[in-house]
Write the structure tokens for this entry.
Amino acid sequence: MKFAALARSAALVTAVALVPVTTAGMAQVDGRAGPEFSKLFATYQQIKANYVEDVDDEKLIRGAIDGMLSSLDPHSGYLDGSDFQRINTMIDGNYSGLGLSVIMDDGAVKIISPFRGSPAEEAGVKAGDYITHLDGKLIYGGDLDEAVNQMRGPAGTSIRLTIFRAGRDEPFDVTVTRGVIELEPVTHKLEAGNIGVISVNEFSTDVGEDVLNAWRTLSREATGRMKGLVLDLRSNPGGQLDEAVALSDLFLDKGRIVSQRGRAQGETIYYDAESAFRGQIADDLPMIVLIDAGSASASEIVAGALQDHRRAVIMGQRSFGKGSVQTLLPLTRDSALKLTTARYYTPAGKSVQEGGIAPDIAVPQLSDPDLEKRAKFQLRESDLRGHLINEIELEDEDLENDVRDDPRFKLTAEELKAQGVEDFQLHYALDTLRRTTPSSVASRN
């Protein structure tokens, strides 16, 4: 089974940096666009008069809107009905269904990532899997919204997913029980040696405050002085831009965090430290930020800010590479445009569009038994059809540096499992911090 290049994105939970707005100025229509509007209206008239079946106006207008937006980039789209409700619940951090981030990949539903702790993850669904059937019904070649609606349903009910996974000879079935998912955006754990691990799973409301509370809890639980901190942003598809700024601000007390630059007046905005939180936490501790190909948008803002300010070592794999900002522009009470309005840049002025954030220390996830096979199907922004091009031309070879063999990483998943290592990247980060003193490289403030 072979799938070609990626079609337009219409994800259940997309990899976006969202800026909700309540008002939006309407751009003036260029007078030269008159003839083009005439073509559009003439096409509408011909369809209404001559198509083999009667077509209602709503279908034609929706098709025209979708066509305009899909011609722009993979992240712009029209939202109404269930789509509009879904984007609002995403901002609030409450979900119902399976807990999946999905896209449409040339007619197939492809999973960007299951959310940690979700029913889908607990059932064994993985990033990069393709869903071909729902309860035995073929969904390949269908509409993504219809597939998403089928996967949603009352908590406690089950749905059977037929999965195609790279490395497997045949598709296989996975039964997932739906749930009302109130994902924990932030989780934390104190590891041996008084090293804290804070995992940020999404950038929904109050993530910055949640991380601050997690840090305070870890500090109380520690038997003595904290010795290091891991901020885990792996498989985090993004969320609210303001929360990415707030999280970065927790660890910085001065300087630029991120800038967004758009074409329209008022779309160029600079975000600086000390705008959300005063001072910084864990300022005297070595710190590592974990990222991977599923770390997108808001996650990349945080990683880029802490990397450029030399506040933390970035470890893992090159991130997704989405350097654009989507703004919600209301049209009616229950519809809006999700429109790309700006690009964002790290404090050093680098755009992560296409190239992503390159880790300071590249560490593969050796504990994944399907690592090599699934790497062939790994999805990043540069794979999306119609993606925005980075202003600085990027060479494909440069983007593949993180997949080259490293003699330090030769253990197999089976060997690691025998040693009790289930998450090699986290294991490597913890070992690095245990060997690190506050004055050495991992504390680069």
Q: What stands out?
A: The chain has two domains: 95-181, 186-434.
